[in-house]
Amino acid sequence: MTHKHAATGQFLNRFSIPILASIILLNLPLLAHETVRAEDRIQFTTEDYPPYNFMDAGTPKGAGYDQVKLLMEGIPADYTIEMMPWARAYALAQSDPQTCVFTTAHIPERDALFKWIEPLAFDRNIVMSRADWPHQIHSIKEARQYSIGTQRNDFTQNFLERNGFTDIDLAANLELTIHKLESGRIDLMPISEKFYQKLVKEGHPVKQQFVLTEQKFAIACNKDVPDRLIEKMQANLNRLIANGTQAKIFKTYGLMQQQNTN
Length: 262
Hints:
By secondary structure, this protein is of the alpha/beta class. It is 40% helix and 27% strand.
């Protein structure tokens, strides 16, 4: 922008004052338009939740994080991405008019609360226990009699409450809930199937009990984020899906290629 304006100024100096004034007036709407776009900003919030968003030797990455970075390319808006406990990340997207949160399960209870860019992925949530837990359960009905832990404001909290669970332990982050499970403070824990597979590979003493839910992951934006930015982000995500980039990202993080089934 600076070089463009400087070149234009040198060119305009060759005109008389009346003509110069006319050109400036004609360009005022354009300049105002560019200024508004330059002031657009988005704060993305997310959590440490491999393989979708996580830190690796101080570097953020993940199947969700990489897609957000790519879909923001070419969009005239300043943006930041900050990792924090899920409850805070989710609350900011509800309260701050410039904030979007990912990777967020798009469930009916949340539909009207946000503007959505999707799909970042499809996944299943399973219920896991300690590997030495002496029971094998197969349903929500059986699971209700045991203590279960999850993150505060995670979609699984609402799901468990709606499905009659009464002994629900809420923690600020995923790591704390995993620690409670492995130390025997809770019996069960819902978790992304992909994250569960990661824990098993790392040697965590956990085992799968049954599949709890299937969900679409998305970017959830505050309803005051301008529609023009939502539309540009969605268009860029659509291109990532259409040109195979999303599938390559899934492969990089050990995710099976997923299709939009809507």
